Amino acid sequence: MDHFGWTEFAFIYSGDESAERCPVYLTDLQRAVFDNSKFTISFSTMWRNDTEAEMRLVLSELSQRARIVVLCSSTSSIKRKLLLLARDMGMISDEYAYIISDLGTAGYISDVDSLHNRTIYVWEDQNVPADGRDKDAFEAFQKTFVLSDVSDDSRTSVGFSVFSDDVQKKMKQPPFSCGASCDKGSGWKNENAVSVIEHTIERVMPGISRFAQVEFHSMSKAEDQGR
């Protein structure tokens, strides 16, 4: 922001995001801005659901409040949908800049089709049938920056994709056994693994605690008998 001389920006995100993701990110940004009076968050909001009507409402309000927009969404299709709506509303121009800031995503890469050895980009519609607006989406994404902690190098992306699939498979196995909730079709993301692990620990710890108490009691009894 400092490089471009931008001092004000908006922060928008999807209400379907994990509470540990975008809301926490917004809190961190607010703290950073508080410590640096040079910058101001002029507007922050979320859309409660991913319907076109809800997203249009947020964009309409945004157009009156900001031109630099930080977008937090971990779902490629939602980012694509939002930017296409922004394009349709005349909000993709030299007046606007969108900063897509995501953790655990590989820049503009949405997925890797290892079967066909092809990289799938975020502006490509993965629905069947497709909406035929990939060119419009590509033009919209040209008005964006992406901040990511994962390289968009294709080899790295393949490695990350394999790692992600491995994490998902392990979460379905004991002691986690999260079942269908770990399917990508159910909205599974790698960040959900933290919650699954926490719940597993909470579930097994009482048993471990009881076992430890029995062992301690047995050892104490044996020690008393040996005296």
Query: How large is the radius of gyration?
Result: 23 Å
Count up the helices: 6
CATH fold-level name of the largest domain = Rossmann fold
The name of the CATH superfamily of the largest domain reads Response regulator
Return residue spans where pLDDT drops below 50 for at least 5 consecutive residues: 152-156, 211-220
Order of strands, main sheet, comes to 2-1-3-4-7
Overall, the morphology is: globular
What is the mean pLDDT?
Answer: 79
Strand content: 15-25%
> Distance N terminus to C terminus?
74 Å
The total strand number stands at 7
Domain count: 2
- Order of SSEs: EHEHEHEEEHEHH
Major sheet size, sense and barrel closure: 5 strands, parallel
Going by helix content, strand content and strand pairing, the class is alpha/beta
Indicate the multimeric state.
single chain
Domain Receptor ligand binding region: 1-118
Main location: membrane
GO cellular component, one term: membrane
Organism: Ancylostoma duodenale
What's the topology here?
Layout: E1 8-14, H1 22-35, E2 40-47, H2 52-63, E3 68-72, H3 76-88, E4 97-102, E5 109-113, E6 118-121, H4 134-141, E7 144-148, H5 154-171, H6 192-226
Parallel strand pairs: 1-2, 1-3, 3-4, 4-7
Antiparallel strand pairs: 5-6
Helix pairs in contact: 2-3, 3-4
Organism: Ancylostoma duodenale
Subcellular location: Membrane
Domain Receptor ligand binding region: 1-118
